[in-house]
Amino acid sequence: MSIKCAVQLGLPEAVGAHAGPISLPDLVSSLGLPPSKAPYLHRLLRLVAHSGFLSLHTKLNDVERYSLTPAGRFLLSDNPYNAGSLLLAVLDPVLTEPFHHMSAWFRSEKDDDDVNTTTFSSTHGGKMAWEYMATDAVFSDLFNDAMARDSCMIAELVVKEGRSAFEGVGSLVDVAGGTGNMAKAVAKAFPGMSCTVLDLPHVVSGLEDGGNNVKYVAGDMFESIPAADAVLLKVISCFLFYLIFYNLNIIFNYICNCKLIALV
Ligand SMILES: C[S@@+](CC[C@H](N)C(=O)[O-])C[C@H]1O[C@@H](n2cnc3c(N)ncnc32)[C@H](O)[C@@H]1O
């Protein structure tokens, strides 16, 4: 929560924009905070430094000054590998609120209409996560943006270090591929490959096909998956979970007949 507060205040940008390590009074003024909040900002800074996102410098006249660590630079909003949006998404009340109801969930009986299937659904009117997201555009955008930024970094590494996994693949479908950053990176690295991004309608509707070799398909991965030489799964543990525990034969047979590239 301290890091979330720091990101929301714009603290990484204020520290990063300063020429050299920044003092507490300078930070209070560049963040536009009331001077009375300085002692509290000091505590926040200590916590953020303790978590490894800031370095503490005390050498100059014994005044505490702060600079961003390499991890702290990942919180800068203009960093293409920004992790701040993922942090804001996972600490959003939509995802944290269910944790406050875990004991009530344990005590409740599973009801017929599945309202109490998970703590998420019992908190959000019986809706499971993806169903809920289709009804909350603000949170959905936050979550999709977080995943897209996560994909930027992973994609760069995967197409460089894991190049051999994609060689010889003529067509690929990124199952539950979000807004398509991963597929776009693969398509760019392998211009001869035709890439399809399959995701739920509220995620991909309105997205333009990303160049000649990326197209979007709106659908449910548990119902059908477009044909391709290879299936890419990134951060789709629920899909693997369903395959293993619910034995979805149709999908399982499909996966067995093509190459599976899983990034969990
Ligand atoms: C954790 S995100 C991962 C997104 C993307 N693979 C990535 O790594 O950036 C899970 C994705 O699964 C999608 N999803 C959930 N259930 C789905 C379903 N039944 N069919 C298709 N996509 C689904 C969600 O909309 C979301 O984009």
TrEMBL record:
GO terms for biological process: methylation. It comes from the Eukaryota. Residues 1-77 form the O-methyltransferase dimerisation domain. Keywords: Membrane, Methyltransferase, S-adenosyl-L-methionine, Transferase, Transmembrane, Transmembrane helix. GO terms for molecular function: O-methyltransferase activity; protein dimerization activity. The chain crosses the membrane at residues 231-255. Residues 99-236 form the O-methyltransferase C-terminal domain. The keyword Lipid metabolism does not apply. InterPro entries: COMT-like, COMT_C, COMT_dimerisation, SAM-dependent_MTases_sf, WH-like_DNA-bd_sf, WH_DNA-bd_sf. PANTHER family: O-METHYLTRANSFERASE (PTHR11746). This is Uncharacterized protein. It comes from Linum tenue.
